[in-house]
Amino acid sequence: MSLTFFAFFAPFLAALAAPVLVRRMGAAAGWVLAVVPALLFVHWWGFLPEVAAGERITGGYRWIPSLNVNFSWFIDGLSLTFALLITGIGTLIVIYAGAYLKGYPTQGRFLSFILMFMGAMQGLVLADSFLMLFVFWELTSITSFLLIGFDHKREAARRAALQALVVTGLGGLVLLAGLIVIWNITGVSEMSLLLATGDTLRQSPFYLLALVLVLGGAFTKSAQFPLHFWLPNAMEAPTPVSAYLHSATMVKAGVYLLMRLNPAMGDTAAWATILPLFGGVTLAVGAFLAIRQTDLKLMLAYTTVASLGLLVMLTGVGTEKALAAAALYLVAHSLFKGALFMVAGAIDHEAGTRDLTKLSGLRKAMPVTFTAGLLAALSMAGLTPFYGFIAKEEIYYALSGTWPAHAMLLIVAVLANALMFAVAFAVGLKPFIGAPVETPKHAHDGPVGLLAGPLLLAVTGLAAGIVWPLAHSLFADPAATAIAGQPITIKTGIVPHWNAAFMLSLVTVALGIAFYVGLGRLRAIADRVVTGIGWGPDQGFDQFTRGLLGLSVATTRFSQSGRLETYMTVTFASLAAVLLLPMILGDELPGVPAFPQARFFDWAMVLIAAVGIIAVVWAKNRLTAIVSLGIQGFAVAVIFMLNGAPDLSFTQFMIETLSVVILALVMTRLSLTPSDHRPTGSKVIDLVIALAVGAGFTLLLLKVLERPLDPTLATFFADFSGTVAFGRNIVNVILVDFRGVDTLGEIGVVMIAGLAILALIRIRVSAAGNRREMREAK
Amino acid sequence: MQTLILRTISPVLCAFMILYSVFITLRGHNDPGGGFIGGLIAASAFAIYGISHGVGAVRRAMYFHPMAIAGFGLFFGTLTGLLAYFTAEPFFTGKWAFPDVFGVTVALSTPMFFDIGVYFVVVGAITSIALALEEDHH
Questions:
Q1: Contact call for residues A527 and A292 (beta carbons, < 8 A)
Q2: Averaged over A39-65, what is the pLDDT?
Q3: DSSP conformation class of A590
Q4: What is the pLDDT of residue A601?
Q5: Where in the sequence is the domain holding B46, given as residue range(s)?
Q6: Interface membership of A655 toward B (CB under 8 Å)
Q7: What is the rounded average pLDDT of the residues A252-272?
């Protein structure tokens, strides 16, 4: 068993240990648990030299060989970069969460969820087989549901959790369909093999179907407009969750998928139209809505939506420069956004509020937090020598290089970047400067656990910029190579050159400063626009769920009357229709059969059965009717016996006996009148239905008997039940051996039906008991 | 229905029916019978005993809750199917053994044990329904 295989399960094992550790050691458990992601980070780091040299590593085990499903992994520049971000930032997040939720009664559960999520996310990006990817994909949805709804006593948290689960979970199912379509087109179920299929997918007539389904998964997960609404709502989660899931990892799963599939699906007209369109709109809408917020976390959440749009857009543009820009921005964004979220959380934790309008002058009280926030903001703003600068330059290179094809995208990118510039400093600078104000809590820097994460991420963003050739060769180049499917070397560095991209950068900075200064006025405008529109997808989601609930209530009311009589009438009327209509409409009624040549004792039994049935109809008393029904049943059982079917006859006898007993017991409990007093009209309807069902079965059997019996199965079982299954009773051998699994299912049904009936009887008893008690109380 | 004749004869009748149900179940592989029909016979035996002596007497005589018996049957039946797992064969592959017991060759097989599981499920489920129905009306 290889270490890599174990690495897939390590986070889940740590998740098991988390509650116990927290109970034993309290908040210090965060430091201990962080060892697991840290070790994973080291493990994946070990692959860097090979991957940077252009290697692609695959491995795994056969899981379900008969279905060609494997537990396999695929490590290349893209998945390794993601794995390092997930485990690296994960380590910091676990430490941060240890301090952030210190003393919280369910902290152990929280750390457990976070580690589970990490395991799911790590599996998602490293999975080679489609089904494994899907399983981990849905696991991230489920764990994020648990994390968003962590504070489950608040209604807003529950709603946000459910919303995220519905949107991303549905997307996951659509993705599954997409992956199966790809599987069917190409015949491969592994990412590594898919990348080697060349143009197969692109030239398939089902390409568009596969694309739309895959996009359904990617766009929901990566919060593309108009499905972006769940992401800002997910800010109900504790801040460590927002910093981890909703900036650096989970929401990038959709982007990851698109990047992963780019070599196999990209570079088509549909790809290059849909992705930039949705990405561009998401970028614009996200950046615009971010300005409107005053809550630090919500501002960051909307810029995350914008950044995801930017990444999708760049993946869609698909030129070498654009893909390189996407790889750079992916890394830079994870670093600065994770840091800024943690800074926002630290402010909230230590000052008691994260409302921008109530925060000012914290630089003296929280110097370290301020440093981290400022460094991250500088990177987000795209200033040199930070890594964010390189990413932004590359974006402008890419979009201006193909002038004027992407002019519209370029304008959107510049405007959105300027808005994000303003937001970056609104979060990383504004709360710290100016005159100190009174905050709900006496503000001061948090403990080491709250500072280590943001500071380390922010400093990494700076360091990666300073040693950019190294950072490029380790992460950005291999990742861009994997996305493009051909070698890419990024040359952009931190030293600005006088060209179009740099000019655009200057425009962005100038606009950004203007936006930052006029933030209040801009917010008022944005607010007025949004209020003017009045409706958003978030309300749409509520309307949709309400409509769905209303539909199901209406359907239930219509189809479930609760009256046994109605159910029986509908059931038997449908049965009669199913039996008779095809025969009549298809003109397949049987011919008139010859008069049967039966022995006198056969006739005697038929006569007894007929007498039984007449007695049922004639009986004045319900109990008499039930017993008379038994007479008919026994007569039929004897007919089976006379015609050489002892097993059938035997079972029929027992079933008849028990049905009479049970029906009689039920009747005595139902407190019905002894006889039937319904109006004649309803009796006639029942009579017609009964005759129709009887006629249907008779005609069907006659029709069946018109054809010669196909003896294939009979011969097979007669030949093999003795030799293969060592039994002479063919019926029994079929039941317990040839079709044993069916029988297992059937006894399961018997068991469940028994439990259900028992429960129903109990409900009646306790309802009757309650009524009695109430009477006595009166 | 608590007539003297029924009350006197029903324990004997019930005992014979249960004995017969076991016989029917075990011979099922080669002659008419099997777990399902055997279970139905045993269930009607318990129903008769319940009608004549009351539900409490049946519950005492059965010792276990009938649903527990049904649950055991389902569990046991599934286990017999899982046995094939140890020889890396598909679920429910039949396994046979012919041990010599006091000079008589006895045929043991997983289908037979599965049939016994079916027997327990049917006895348990039907009896628990019948007893629950009888209970309130006494």
A1: yes
A2: 89
A3: P
A4: 86
A5: 4-137
A6: yes
A7: 91
Structural domain total, chain B: 1
CA atoms of A253 and A260, how far apart (whole Å): 10
List b or e across A228-255, with b for residues whose CB sees 16 or more CB atoms inside 10 angstroms.
Answer: bbbbbbbbbbbbbbbbbbbbbbbbbbbb
Cis, peptide link before residue A404, omega less than 30° from 0: yes
The predicted pLDDT at position B138 comes to 43
Confidence band of A777 (pLDDT split at 50, 70, 90): low
pLDDT of residue B39: 93
In chain A, residues with a C-beta closer than 8 Å to the C-beta of B107 are 726
Min Cα–Cα distance to chain A from B6, Å: 15
> Average pLDDT of A101-116?
88
pLDDT at A771: 64
A668 to B109: CB separation less than 8 angstroms, yes or no: no
Angle between helices A387-401 and A448-466 (to 10 degrees): 50
Specify the DSSP element, H or E, that contains A588: none
| Pairing of the two strands B96-97 and B108-109 | antiparallel
Across the interface, do A665 and B133 touch by the CB < 8 Å criterion?
A: yes
Coil, helix or strand for A249? Answer: coil
Q: Are the beta carbons of B111 and A654 separated by less than 8 Å?
A: no
Preceding omega of A478 cis (within 30 degrees of 0): no
Please state, rounded to an integer, the average pLDDT across all residues of chain A: 88
What's the burial of A158, exposed, middle or buried (CB within 10 Å: 0-12/13-18/19+)? Answer: middle
A717-755: pLDDT as tens digits? 888 888 887 888 888 888 888 888 999 999 999 999 999
Contact B37 A735 (CB under 8 A): no
Q: Are A364 and A450 in contact (CB under 8 A)?
A: no
> Between the CA atoms of A117, A123, A129 and A135, what dihedral angle is there, to the nearest 10 degrees?
-10
Residue whose C-alpha is closest to residue A284's, from A373, A168, A400, A416: A416
pLDDT at A682 over 90: no
Report the interhelical angle of A519-533 vs A269-292 (nearest 10°): 110
- pLDDT tens column, B33-48: 889 999 999 999 998 8
pLDDT attached to residue B110: 87
* SS3 state at A60: strand
pTM of the model: 0.76
In chain A, the residue whose alpha carbon lies closest to the alpha carbon of B119 is: A747
Q: Are A347 and A362 in contact (CB under 8 A)?
A: yes
Task: List the 658-717 stretch of A: residues with Cβ below 8 A of B.
Answer: 658, 661-662, 665-666, 668-669
d(CA A207, CA A203) in angstroms, rounded, equals 7
Give the pLDDT confidence score for residue A364 in this predicted structure. Answer: 85
**Which pLDDT score, from 0 to 100, does residue A401 have?**
76
**Which residue of chain A is at minimal alpha-carbon distance from B68?**
A751
Across residues A376-382, what is the average pLDDT? 90
Cα A479 to Cα B8: distance, rounded to the nearest angstrom:
87
Q: Pick the closest to residue A434 from A525, A344, A356 (CA basis).
A: A356
- Burial letters for A8-45: b for 16+ Cβ neighbours within 10 Å, e otherwise? bebbbebbebbbebbeeeebebbbbbbebbbebbebbe
Is A143's pLDDT higher than 70?
Answer: yes
Q: Of A651, A751, A765, which is closest to B71 when you measure between CB atoms?
A: A751
What one-letter code names the amino acid at A363? R
